[in-house]
């Protein structure tokens, strides 16, 4: 009886082991078929794409046969300086903030038709801000050391991507339905830059919600690459990486640097802005010591 029970136990154990091995083999075989099926699916997806690439590549290459237009050459040496260098020159009266701002405005107007990277601007107000900076520097209201410490970018122009709010300028994040929306106040980053003395010039292009791999939106269209106008500057901050990057020079065009044409003040500055500027000039004349209102430079005419 005992031998019979022992034999049955051994047979049961062997049977279970064999069944487990069979199940494992079936599972491994199933996984093998599954991997093979995925390989087939991936191949079926990849092959048409590869074939399409082979067919389309010669036609796409035809676009690059013609030479790309080039941006005007850099002629104004002011535009080759970094933000810190410009700020130092302004504080030391080697150059005026107005000269620097007008130089960048002139270059922006020269290259924007080719780059298509400007969403909105405040050129007139920026010139008034620059004149105010020059007036503060000339009166000696603050020493060079004070200005360097409290307003390190005093009088240096600044550009900002359009998805970041600059008071009074467009703030649509590239969305057509928000084309007419304007920022009611500065974003925190812009406030900090104003506090450091920087002068916002413009807001630059972004794709919708900064989420595409190239800088295109339905408001101004496609932004071009400054090194090759046939190509894209990539996405998110396309307008900024084009060269509106001087902070490295305070986000003020690297590629914008060049020809300084004298601007016609009468066409740039309206009567209200001129009146605000004159009031600030009178205040500087009447005060022996003036507290520089870094954040309030442009509040009057926005």
Q: In terms of topology, how is this protein built?
A:
Blueprint lengths: L1 H60 L21 H9 L5 H19 L2 E4 L1 H17 L4 H7 L6 E5 L26 H8 L3 E6 L11 E2 L3 E2 L15 H4 L23 H4 L2 H16 L16
Parallel strand pairs: 2-3
Antiparallel strand pairs: 1-3, 4-5
Q: Would you give an account of this structure?
A:
This protein is mainly alpha-helical and 302 residues long. 48% of the residues lie in helices and 6% in strands. It folds into 2 domains: 2-64; 77-301, Amidase signature (AS) domain (Amidase signature (AS) enzymes). It has helices at residues 2-61, 83-91, 97-115, 123-139, 144-150, 188-195, 238-241, 265-268, 271-286; strands spanning 118-121, 157-161, 199-204, 216-217, 221-222. Strands 1-3-2 form a 3-stranded mixed beta sheet, with helices on both faces. A two-stranded antiparallel ribbon has the order 4-5. A hairpin with a 3-residue loop joins β4 (216-217) and β5. α4 (123-139) packs parallel to α9 (271-286). It is elongated, with a radius of gyration of 32 Å. The model is unreliable at 244-271 and 287-302 (pLDDT under 50).
């Amino acid at each position: 009886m005992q031998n019979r029970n022992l034999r049955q136990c051994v047979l049961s154990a062997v049977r279970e082991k064999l069944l487990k091995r069979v199940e494992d083999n079936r599972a491994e075989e199933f996984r093998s078929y599954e991997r093979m099926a995925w390989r087939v699916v991936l191949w079926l997806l990849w092959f048409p794409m590869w074939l399409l690439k082979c067919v389309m590549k010669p036609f796409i290459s035809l676009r690059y046969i013609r030479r790309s237009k080039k941006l005007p050459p850099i002629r104004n040496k002011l535009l080759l300086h970094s933000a810190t260098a410009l700020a130092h020159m302004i504080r030391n009266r080697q150059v005026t903030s107005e000269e620097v701002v007008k130089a960048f405005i002139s270059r922006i107007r020269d290259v924007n038709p080719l780059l298509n990277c400007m969403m909105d601007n405040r050129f007139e107000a920026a010139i008034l801000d620059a004149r105010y900076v020059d007036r503060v520097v000339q009166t000696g209201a603050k020493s060079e050391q004070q200005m360097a410490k409290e307003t390190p970018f005093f009088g240096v122009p600044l550009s900002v991507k359009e998805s970041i709010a600059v008071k009074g300028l467009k703030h649509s994040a590239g969305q057509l339905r928000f084309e007419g929306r304007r920022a009611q106040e500065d974003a925190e980053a812009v406030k900090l830059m104003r506090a450091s003395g920087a002068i916002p010039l413009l807001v630059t292009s972004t794709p919708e919600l900064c989420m595409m791999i190239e800088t295109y939106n339905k408001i101004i269209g496609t932004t071009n690459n400054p090194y090759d106008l046939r190509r894209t500057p990539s996405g998110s901050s396309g307008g900024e990486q084009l060269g509106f990057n001087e902070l490295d020079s305070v986000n003020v065009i690297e590629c914008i640097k060049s020809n300084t044409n004298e601007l016609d003040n009468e066409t740039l500055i309206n009567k209200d802005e001129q009146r605000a500027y004159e009031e600030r000039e009178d205040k500087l004349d009447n005060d022996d010591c003036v507290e520089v209102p870094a954040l309030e430079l442009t509040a009057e005419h926005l």
